[in-house]
Design goal:
The structure is a single chain. By secondary structure, the protein is an alpha+beta fold. The protein has one domain. Helices cover 21% and strands 14% of the residues. It has a two-stranded antiparallel sheet with strand order 1-2. The longest helix has 11 residues. It is globular, with a radius of gyration of 13 Å. 3% of the residues are buried. The mean pLDDT is 88.
Length: 72
């Protein structure tokens, strides 16, 4: 768990130019980075950056993951 948290921290500490490649609002994707993920469904804005990846039942290909998270 510690390594996972460190990987997410490394992702968020990257330059915006690197993170923007993962910025999507399409939650059907396996790897997504966005802000205020419930922007259109929540009664109030909840501004925060979020990175998530679905690992089950089918994990994403290694190339789809951010480079700083691939080793975890």
């Amino acid at each position: 768990m510690h390594e996972t948290l460190q990987g997410v921290r490394r992702f968020h500490e990257q330059d915006v130019e690197i993170k923007i490649r993962f910025y999507l609002r399409d939650v059907s994707r396996t790897v997504v980075y966005n802000s205020n993920f419930d922007l259109y469904t929540s009664p109030a804005a909840n501004w925060r950056d979020t990175y998530f990846s679905f690992m089950a039942p089918s994990p994403p290909k290694v190339e789809e993951l951010p480079e700083v998270c691939r080793d975890i």
